[in-house]
Amino acid sequence: MAAGPQADYVGIMTEDPSRVPPPLPSYDPQRPAPPLTPDPAADPALRAAALKHLEAVKAFRIHLTVYLAVMALLVAIWLITGAGYFWPVWPAMGWGLGLGLHRASMSWDREPTEAQIAEQARRLAQRRDQDRPRAIED
Q1: What does residue 82 show for φ and ψ, rounded to 5 degrees?
Q2: How many C-beta atoms lie closer than 10 Å to residue 109's C-beta?
Q3: How many CA atoms lie within 13 A of 45 on its CB side?
Q4: How far is C-alpha 124 from the geometric centre of its chain's CA atoms?
Q5: Structure confidence by residue, pLDDT tens digits, 66-93
Q6: Cβ atoms within 10 A of the Cβ of 12, count?
Q7: Which of 48, 55, 57 is nearest to 103 (CA)?
Q8: 0.90 cut: is pTM over it?
Q9: By the 8 A CB rule, do 39 and 71 touch?
Q10: How far apart, in whole angstroms, are the C-alpha atoms of residue 59 and residue 36?
Q11: φ and ψ of 112, to 5 deg
Q12: b vs e for 63-99, b when ≥16 Cβ sit within 10 Å of the residue's Cβ?
């Protein structure tokens, strides 16, 4: 038998067949590799939350588009009627406030964190304990 690493490997192969290294995975270019992480879109809860957010963004964009179109119309009316006192500023500010609140409300719908849920549960337990009638002590 030859000496060296090859001889050691052959010796291992013949002495203990359970120590044979596993075969290497074969490469098949027709079969894509499995993803390293699962696709978040496959989770129904995440998919529903994403869809809800995208619908909210779409509704805000529609609201913004209508706002800009109406404000352009009001400025055009102001220009046609003589361009005196700039009165379109008042509807722009009022509706702009509503538009800003619409945008802000998109971040108010966030799911509560575990810390927020635990804090609320502690508050409810404390309130429940305060509302219980006390036993009469003799």
Answers
A1: 120, -10
A2: 10
A3: 1
A4: 28
A5: 999 999 999 999 999 998 999 999 999 9
A6: 13
A7: 57
A8: no
A9: no
A10: 35
A11: -70, 145
A12: eeeebeeebeebeeebeeeeeeeeebeeebeebeeeb
Structure tokens given for 121: 């549960």
Please report where in the chains the tokens 């010796």 appear, as a residue.
Answer: 11
| Helix and strand element counts for the chain (H, E) | 4, 0
- How many whole angstroms separate alpha carbon 118 and alpha carbon 44? 25
What is the amino acid identity at position 29?
A: P
What gap in Å lies between CA 85 and CA 77, rounded to an integer? 12
Q: Model confidence over 83-120: pLDDT tens digits?
A: 899 999 999 999 999 999 999 988 887 777 788 888 88
Distance CA 64, CA 85 (A): 25
Q: Distance (Å, rounded) from C-alpha 49 to C-alpha 65?
A: 24
